[in-house]
Write a structure and sequence with these properties.
five-stranded antiparallel beta sheet, globular, disordered C terminus, single chain, alpha+beta, 605 residues, binds zinc ion
Length: 605
């Protein structure tokens, strides 16, 4: 299937490459070229160039370049013919009739053949599931709560534990060895010949939107079986990441309800479906692709992501959210309690409880914020920078500008980011396509660097065991959690409690992955303070008070800002509470301040 060459060349000339690229990248004019930070690699400087007179783009950073079609292929991850369609649509140019050439015909014939063989295999596997050999499989399905009707609806089957039973059946139906090998139903042997791919497995057929079987998943019934799920390879009928499981059954309900529930596995779809929740699709293990999102986007512009609540599920959900937002589709997230997947949850708590929870699903941004603040201390600037860095991609991915700003404000409020830093971050989010870690760190940069006081205190603690034994018990997490060097203080406390030796090695190990620690540990450890013990103790206490003063000042500032905002919003109750807190912290601050001798604050030596 291809377009006439003359059409492609005409289209390239008619398409305005600057305007089309601008749909994705905020280009700025620079001489004859237009420039922006590159959308294909992480950067803040604009190395990405578009030259309208040459009808080309090129990035000096990652060296990607080409025509408007190459840009769309890269950006939308589509094939050349699909890129032509997109460019034509964006340029308002009607498409000509396509040339059906031999290659297309061959591919279509191959694809139809694979589907024929899949039909035969599926019918046979369905029959096998009713056989005596499959008693334990039927038992398993019953135990998972699946009714006979559901088994029929989803056309589940059973592949017997044999190396050749299916191949033999296909040959009897008239398939050639070549066709059988092309279908992916068998695995080719190096020495020639082949054996059945699915053996001793429960079969879940995957259908295209027209309901044709294009691939299969086979679940092992052996508790030690590996892999748990075995999938079809790519064939002329099946390209990974192009299909969604269950869509042929659920598309109308998705359209009717106006949203799709996205789940992970076969049973996460089948079980809710049996209980009457029918606007689902399953992404099936692999990361959700833009093609899959476009596919579901044909039926609804809202998606509710309902993945497992475990760590892997949350990571997968976050990746899915980004992909969905990029297609300009609204996303909500449903996390079920106790890390339950939809299958488990519905069987345990019933469908009405599932529907109730579904009604309370969070907008994607709230889910992302919750994940970002989990295991982090927002009063630590380093942690806050990391949380912001983790969250901003989900704001940037929002296409609608007004919504983008709303989500941005929600994130900034949720992460309690100061007004000055908000302004800088918004410039980044609004401007470029990619804000990288470095740019975010820079905004928080002033705060992320260790202060002289904390570095000096650490130096004293590391150099002197006796001093450490006095000072460490006095240190509360609140004293150090806000510091750039929090990881080192935390490690010192932990090693102290475990009565482990404090050395460069043990500290490095305990602060692994912390860039600040990696940088300053050697520097601190190499110093041998030449002070007497008494002098060291006085210094250490002074450093500690200086750190406390700094922190309290910061809290006072934050409260002052919150009070101003609350006053504007007219929330009297909250205002009184904040003013009360402000008074308390100010008192505490002044008390610490009084302990520090005037003119003796800690300064660089
Ligand atoms: Zn680049």
């Amino acid at each position: 299937m291809r377009f006439p060459q003359t059409f492609i060349e005409d289209l390239k000339r008619q398409a305005d490459i600057v305007r089309i690229v601008q749909d994705y990248v905020a280009l700025k004019k620079a001489g004859t070229n237009w420039r922006a930070p590159c959308p294909f690699h992480k950067e803040t400087k604009p190395s990405f160039n578009v030259n309208p007179s040459k009808e080309m783009f090129f990035c000096f950073g990652c060296h990607k370049g080409g025509t408007v079609f190459n840009f769309i292929m890269e950006m939308e991850r589509v094939t050349f013919p699909e890129a032509i369609k997109i460019v034509a649509e964006k340029s308002g140019v009607p498409l000509p009739k396509m040339i059906d050439d031999d290659r297309f015909e061959t591919r279509k014939r191959d694809s139809d053949q694979v589907i024929d063989l899949n039909q035969w295999a599926l019918q046979w596997w369905q029959d096998q599931l009713q056989s005596k050999a499959a008693t334990s499989v039927r038992q398993y399905l019953k135990q998972r709560g699946l009714t006979e009707e559901t088994v029929q609806t989803f056309k589940l089957g059973f592949a017997p534990d044999s190396w050749e039973a299916l191949s033999t059946h296909l040959r009897q139906k008239g398939a050639t060895q070549e066709q059988i090998e092309q279908s992916g139903l068998v695995v080719k042997k190096d020495e020639g010949g082949s054996y059945d791919r699915f053996r001793g497995r429960l079969i879940f057929p995957v259908f295209d939107t027209q309901g044709k079987p294009i691939a299969f998943g086979g679940r092992t019934l052996d508790p030690d079986g590996d892999p748990k799920y075995l999938n079809s390879p790519e064939t002329p009928a099946y390209t990974k990441g192009r299909h969604l499981y269950g869509l042929h059954l659920t598309r109308d309900e998705i359209r009717r309800q106006g949203f799709a529930i996205l789940v992970e596995g076969y049973l996460d779809l089948i079980v809710p479906y049996q209980f009457g929740v029918r606007n689902l699709v399953a992404s099936l293990g692999t990361a959700l692709t833009p093609e899959q999102v476009k596919l579901v986007g044909r039926f609804a512009r809202k998606v509710l992501v309902n993945y497992d609540g475990d760590r892997a599920g949350v990571q997968a959900a976050k990746r899915a959210i980004e992909t969905i937002l990029a297609e300009d589709i609204e996303v909500k997230v449903l996390v079920l309690p106790d890390n339950a997947d939809p299958d488990d949850f519905i069987r345990k708590h019933g469908v009405s409880e599932y529907n109730r929870r579904r009604g309370e699903a969070q907008p994607h941004i709230q889910f992302v914020i919750d994940q970002a603040v989990r295991d982090r201390h927002l009063n630590s600037p380093a942690d806050k920078a990391a949380a912001v860095e983790e969250t901003l991609p989900f704001v940037r991915a929002v296409r609608n500008r007004i919504q983008k700003r709303e989500y941005f404000d929600i994130v900034m409020d949720g992460l309690r980011v100061q007004r000055e830093q908000r302004r800088e971050l918004w410039q980044q989010v609004r401007g470029g396509v990619s804000t990288d870690a470095v740019a975010v760190q820079k905004v928080f940069g002033r705060a992320v660097k260790p202060t002289v006081a904390e570095e000096k205190l650490l130096g004293l603690l590391l150099a002197n065991d006796e001093l450490r034994n006095i000072i460490l018990p006095k240190l509360a997490p609140g004293d150090y959690e806000g510091l750039a060097t929090a990881a080192i203080f935390r490690a010192l406390k932990e090693l102290g409690t475990a009565e482990k030796e404090i050395t460069y090695e043990s500290l490095s190990e305990a602060t692994a992955d912390n860039p600040v620690a990696a940088e300053i540990l050697p520097r601190i450890l190499i110093n041998e303070p030449a002070e007497s013990f008494d002098e060291s103790l006085t210094d250490a206490e002074r450093c500690l008070n200086s750190i406390r003063l700094e922190r309290l000042n910061q809290i006072v500032d934050e409260l002052t800002q919150q009070i101003a905002e609350t006053e504007r919003a007219g929330n009297i109750e909250k205002l009184i509470e904040l003013q009360h807190r402000h008074l308390e912290v100010t008192k505490e601050r002044d008390a610490v301040d009084a302990l520090l001798p005037r003119g003796h604050s800690i300064r660089p030596a």
